[in-house]
Sequence to fold (215 residues):
Amino acid sequence: MATEKYYVPESSPWPLTASIGLFLTAIGGAKFIQQSTMDTMEPNFFGKPLFFIGLAWLLLVIAAWWRDTIKESVGGLHSNQLGGSYRQGMLWFIFSEVMFFAAFFGAMFYTRWLIIPWLSGEGSNAMTHELLWPGFQAMWPLTVTPDGTTTTPMGAWGLPAINTAILLVQLHYPDHRPPRSAGKPAWQADHLPGHYGGTGCHLPGSAGPGICARL
Fold:
């Protein structure tokens, strides 16, 4: 049974340790990608091992964070007010994702429909074309850089298709998850902690700490 008091957890090391894991993963991943595009590998190659160390660190922190939150939920420490706080946190997280994609696609729209015509001298922008990039030719996607380097655009059926499929599965699953059995903790009934379902559960390190219970 849920408590009627608002539960304030004790000081936790997981936010700080998760940030360290994310930092190691980001630095290692960036260095690994940079070095993988070089013709000759640098002697002090550390990107790949640092990336996997950070990833393993992060997975261990997530497991420990979920463990603590599950214990709190099963122990009846989560109140209805705390459940509402979890849901509000997830709503703000989703809102931030919507705003991120709005800014991302807005920048792409700005580049495609405004910047390219300006650089190509369309309309009254002849001087813009001559001063900024005289040899520019309007095309989409842009495959030639200002220094003349030709790049290859990413295919739609590779990584973009995989990411889209994962996103659709995440959005589709909560509508078809099994109903919660009466008297069972939410972490037992919902099967997959951390999904974007009606329970408002969070992923550690993103919008809030761990799995929340529908109380």
User: Anything to note?
Assistant: Residues 14-189 form one domain. The chain has one domain: 14-189. The helical segments are 14-36, 47-74, 80-119, 126-132, 159-172, 186-189. The longest helix spans residues 80-119.
